[in-house]
Amino acid sequence: MTCSRLALALYPFVAAAVAINLFMAGLLSQSVGLPALPPLAALLAAIPLGVPATALAVRWVRQLLAEAGEP
Prior knowledge:
80% of the residues lie in helices and 0% in strands. It is mostly helical. It has one domain. Helix 1 packs across helix 2. The longest helix is centred in the last third of the chain and has 30 residues, at 39-68. The radius of gyration is 15 Å and the shape is elongated. 13% of the residues are buried. This is NnrT protein.
């Protein structure tokens, strides 16, 4: 699997994980008096933030595949 195909396959899952983490961070921010982050805002923020997170995930998966001995 090429790197770009791997990135396209992983992006939806990584972006969803970023959205969940942003939403949870928004909920935690209420404990210090900040307003909560609405779910839609977390989803919209996860679209661009998912790109660098996907690049890191692809690099990690590539390293795992190299350790396993895949060419």
